[in-house]
Design goal:
9 strands, alpha+beta
Length: 196
């Protein structure tokens, strides 16, 4: 299950001042920046192993082509380095087990008409977390955190039109389609939630 940052690469990138401080808890999840997130248990996995366990071929199927497939250690290390250069990436950790069950990728862009920012949201849930409502809980928690940040004007997420689970998660949390004329089932659709 995945939603991605969409067309963020073509946007005017700004400093990630707002989202670098993003940290929140839900009933079942703790979400924090991946280099500071606490993975518990004896022999807790390192970040490349965590990325490899989440970014499986099934979990990445709806992501952009260059992110699809398996993530052996070498690919995971490279991908982590690339994400660190783009902006903050967060781990979603199941509170009861201390296990990482998802990644949250954030990208800030300047709003067209003022000092506010738009935050582009991407997430990937591990296959083991599917069908438990964790995706909805994750997005709901993120939206609530964003509502407390006065600088965030809107949230945007891109999703493949045929990724119905992620479409439902976004819609359930108040996101609405930005472009309604998508006929291609494989096309990316952009969703927006205006906060201000």
């Amino acid at each position: 299950m995945a939603c991605h940052v969409g067309r963020a690469a073509s946007l005017r990138r700004i400093a990630t001042v707002v989202t670098e401080s993003c940290s929140f808890e839900t009933a079942r999840l703790t979400v924090d920046v991946w280099h500071t997130a606490s993975l518990t248990g004896e022999g807790a996995p390192r970040l490349p192993e965590v990325v490899g366990s989440i970014m499986t071929p099934a979990a990445t199927r709806a992501l952009p082509a260059e992110w699809q497939g398996a993530y052996p250690r070498s690919r995971a290390v490279t991908w982590i380095r690339e994400r660190d250069g783009d902006g903050p990436t967060h781990l979603a950790i199941e509170r009861s087990s201390g296990t990482a069950v998802g990644l949250v990728i954030l990208f800030e862009s300047a709003a067209d008409d003022g000092p506010d920012v738009e935050v582009h949201l991407g997430y990937v849930l591990a296959e083991s977390a599917w069908g438990q409502g964790l995706g909805s809980e994750l997005v709901e928690g993120f939206v609530e955190w964003c509502r407390g940040e006065r600088q965030i004007r809107s949230l945007i997420g891109g999703v493949a039109a045929d990724n119905l689970a992620s479409v439902r998660i976004l819609e359930k949390n108040g996101f609405r389609p930005m472009d309604s004329d998508v006929d291609d089932a494989d096309a990316e659709r952009m969703y927006i939630l205006r906060l201000r």
